Structure prediction request, 744 residues.
Amino acid sequence: MMLDLLIPSSGAGKAILAAVLLGAGSGLLGSFVVLRRMALMGDAISHAVLPGVVAGLIYSPERSPLVIFLCAVAAGLLGAGLVRAMMATTRLKSDTALGIVLAFFFAFGIMWQSRNQESTAGVMNFLFGNIGAINTADLRMMMLATGLLCIVVFVLKRPLLVMSFDEGFSRGLGYPVRFLNAVFYFLLTFSVVVGLQAVGVVLVSAMLITPAASAYLLTDRFGKMLVLSMAFGVFSGVVGGLVSASVNGMPTGPVITLAATLVFALTYFLAPQHGVLAKVLRRGRRRRRVYRENTLKAIYQIQEASGFSHEDVDLIDLAQKRRNTEDHARKECAALLRHDFIELSADGQAVRLTTSGWRRAMEMVRNHRLWELYLTNEANYADDHVHEDAEKIEHILGANTVKQLEQDLDFPELDPHGKPIPQPQLVASPIV
Amino acid sequence: MNYLTIPWESFGIGAFWLMLMAFLVALPCSQMGSFLILRRMALTGDAISHSVFPGVVIAFVLIGDLASPWLIVGAGLAGLVSTVFIELIHRKTRVKQDAATGISFTALFALGVVLMESMLGKNVDLDLDCVLHGRLGLLLEEAHVEILGAQVPQPILVMAGVSVVTILAMVVFYRVLLLSSFDAGLAASYGYKPVVIHYCLMFVVSFIVVAAFQAVGAILVIALLILPGAAAYLCTHRLKIMLLLAGLHALLSAVGGLYLHVWFNTDMASAVVVCGGVLLLLTWLLGPVDGLMWKWLKEEGRQPDDDTSHST
Prediction:
């Protein structure tokens, strides 16, 4: 057989190849599982196959791998079907249904096994997995399974994707949802059973979930997620295989899982868009911007109160306006200086807005007053209730929304409190 | 009936102890499990019971004694750590709770296995068998303590303590649990901090899981947490009745489990769970609220009505 050419002869090589195949296959399926919020389906199926394995061991005394495999797949499919049925016909949520099937099937398997201790002696090996014991026949099976998986996912990518996001919508598009679900659960059970022999019950669900979740944090495109998730799965497999081959006594399955977890931990902190670090930085930047804009607005309002008669605003006035100390006002102004929104006067006690500062300040005040007007006119808010809301939204309104607001309000000149709404687009440069 | 008296003939008073032990393990699990189900956190029990493993290994490495109570403390802490990880992952990123659960418990479990292999080597084995089966079947061989003139197996006293503590805690905090399970926002507005409630509940669940896991094994604990609550949920819309029914389910599984154990000569812990599962299937078919049977009957009954409405 041609596939045999790809199978290495050494035990370590076989283990690594098995880990790579497992990583690729479960990485691919895992993306769907994670998106469907069915992440623990793999866990439920991997426990639910136990009665099948026991049945296979009892009814096939010569331990034919095929019989055991088929029995295990049948039990897994029955479990998955029961979960679906329970969710469809009762008020139980997915987590409970998964838990019921997982525990009940597993208990049934253990009970059955305890009656037939002699004929089922190897059942624990099957459950805990031993990647070192994988032989050429197993590898051939894994290659076929992974190949089949890739082909089916490639052919059915679109319908499966739509179904993962919205089952009702895919029914509306005319996809055969029942058939697709059957295919999906069949593939899942198949790959779980194949993976069981390599890494065992617990870790097979790790291979389904962890690489896919890491990929989910890195991209918003489904195609990319599939590729990344496969890549992470393969990477974990290689790392696990290499480490356990070089360090004595390291079990392969757990090392693979830990490698996958390490990848997840890295993406958790460092992912550019959805990582924790990026979120913290983004939040900090937004907070500082809001702060700056509020200071600019305060300067504008001080100017406005004096009828725009002075160009300079004293730091003390600013501190009073912001209800803070002068030192604090100086710090706020330092931030504005860095952005070239203001200039410091010669003695350092007063500030003056630059062109861009004027522009930005007027935009903020305009946004604020437009929004207040919008709330009072269009949403029937009382005019003493609109300030808080406007205070938040003024920083977020985009240029298009502002245009829309101006149009809807018929290019107003005064806000509900009777103050003029500035028009930064007209006064771009004259006041300097 | 010969069948009904077999256990009593073969074990004598031991049959009662086995049944009582199974009930005492299942009872606190059934009560806390009901809340887990209502909070859609049924699989958190799964996560905790798997994560216990590294805690036991680390405590064993530090203490060096398999019988030390510190092992239980370590196990409980590891269970809590897994719930912290779950929260950190699904609160801070867009990964959903189910995936977060899967990531954290598999990682901790794998860590436990690696630690066991690398630090303990092959000379000590923290029996994997106890992960699967537990020690319920060995109950009658454990040390007995004399109480009020009766010889009581020691583990029963421990589990009785755990049950009493759990039930007391539940009664005291019933209102908080009820509110926060159904309407976290309302509970928060009354000043019950959701985070505090969450971690207190997780603490109690870890405590129970660790206590029960020695008796029935890591995986069957999940069954004891979920099955009673789920069966009760299918029968009622009221929380108090649900909790009572879950307790009843625990009792019936314990009794039925004993009979299955004796009739078919099987492992006791899994027999209890299988019996509980069969009870759940029965409620699925016949339960007063969600029973499939009644739904089918109603469909049957409605069919002629529809026909008449069409004809008129």
Summary: The radius of gyration of chain B is 22 Å. Chain B has one domain: 2-305. Chain B touches chain A through 65 residues (CB under 8 Å).
